[in-house]
Automatic annotation (TrEMBL):
This is Putative glutamine transport system permease protein GlnP. The chain crosses the membrane at residues 16-43, 55-76, 82-102, 139-164, 184-205. It comes from the Bacteria. Pfam families: BPD_transp_1 (PF00528).
Length: 230
């Protein structure tokens, strides 16, 4: 295959890949924020708040992401709520992954030794200070490998928004395959681009994980002990 023909195929696919990256960036940031909010609601002392968070998590985890996307894009207009495709795609990904991240964050926080909480209270720290300075850094170190896995899953799950006509890598591949009738070539290129994106993201997470795994980074050495900051 000549470089000219290959360029003809790669240009629309790379354009779709940029939209995939935009989807991932927006969805990941918002999903982390939502996950933290739902996590704290799930651990709230108020029963109605805990129940609402649990119901949300159970509904999202009990239904496929594809159904949720269809509900947002095709179902809500029947109620008079029309959401643009890209926004519906981001919203669906955020709601879906936010539920999973909420449970991941909750598990990480609960894995922190109770002695850390008692020590922080003895130092007179507020709840917000305890979470920011002592609990969350240790919880992050515990959940970071799983967080990286969720990020890779999110990259690949952005392909599902193609079913609601959002232009991204998978949608670009569908359109190109339909126009050229070269499905094998097109979807091979699509798979290769996804593989490269996931490879880069995986590399970044491995580098970050190594930084978090430095002995004494979170505890032990006085310079890196969170309690020593107070």
């Amino acid at each position: 295959m000549t470089p000219e023909i290959l360029k003809t195929y790669l240009e629309p696919l790379l354009q779709g890949a940029w939209w995939t990256i935009a989807l991932f960036a927006a969805s990941s940031l918002l999903a982390v924020a939502l996950g933290l909010a739902v996590c704290f609601c799930r651990m709230s002392s108020m029963k109605p708040v805990r129940t609402a968070a649990k119901v949300y998590i159970d509904i999202v985890r009990g239904t496929p992401l594809l159904v949720q996307l269809f509900f947002l894009y095709y179902g809500l207009p029947e109620l008079g709520v029309v959401i643009p495709g890209f926004v519906a795609g981001v919203l669906g990904l955020v709601l879906n992954f936010g539920a999973y991240l909420a449970e991941l964050f909750r598990g990480g926080i609960q894995s922190v030794d109770n002695g850390q909480f008692e020590a922080s209270r003895a130092l007179g720290m507020t709840r917000a200070q305890r979470m920011r300075v002592i609990v969350m850094p240790q919880a992050l170190r515990t959940i970071f490998p799983a967080l990286g896995n969720y990020a890779l899953v999110l990259v690949k799950d952005t392909s599902l928004v193609a079913v609601i006509s959002v232009y991204e890598l998978m949608r670009a591949g569908q359109m190109l395959a339909g126009a050229t009738f070269r499905s094998l070539l097109v979807y091979s290129l699509v798979g290769a681009i996804y593989f490269v994106m996931c490879g880069v993201l995986s590399y970044l997470f491995r580098r970050a994980e190594k930084s978090l795994s430095i002995p004494g980074y979170w505890s032990g050495a006085p310079d890196h002990n969170p309690a020593a900051i107070i």
